[in-house]
Amino acid sequence: MQNLIRAARSAQKHAHAPYSEFPVGAALLTSTGKIFTGCNVENASFGLTICAERVAVTKAVSEGYRKFRAIAVVAPHKTLTPCGACRQFLAEFGDIEIICADSRRPGNPRNFRLSQLLPEAFGL
Ligand code: THU
Q1: Does 86 sit in the ligand 1 pocket, CB within 6 Å?
Q2: Which of 4, 37, 102, 107 could form a disulfide with 72 if both were Cys (CB 3.0 to 4.6 A apart)?
Q3: Whose CA is nearest to atom 13 of ligand 1?
Q4: What is the pTM of this model?
Q5: pLDDT at site 106
Q6: 21-57 b/e (C-beta count within 10 Å ≥ 16 → b)
Q7: Which pLDDT score, from 0 to 100, does residue 124 have?
């Protein structure tokens, strides 16, 4: 999955994170092998910030893709795991693999299933 991490690192460069100075990149792999990327997009009204994972998912869904295999997420200094809101957002589309890597040392990722990170996800 190094190619997915590479795509996430590339998207991280586009992060708009002037307030946190914490750029995040994500790359979502569809069941057809297509990759959609995302970065965090912050706003002066802080609560409007959108996480990298949700940008990638909304890009994919808006182009007709709903079946996903995995998402890679990269952040500086640490192997970030997706925030609670993003876990629930991802759960809408199934129990995918989540690959978390430090963008500066991407060779040693942590891998999870979404159901490990969000057991008993809310559903209607
Ligand atoms: N952030 C993400 O993009 N994804 C996450 O899963 C957690 C946090 C972003 C939001 C904000 O722009 C910055 O990281 C600091 O919280």
Answers
A1: yes
A2: 4
A3: 22
A4: 0.97
A5: 86
A6: eebbbbbbbbeeeebbbbbbbbeeeeeeebbbbbbbb
A7: 95
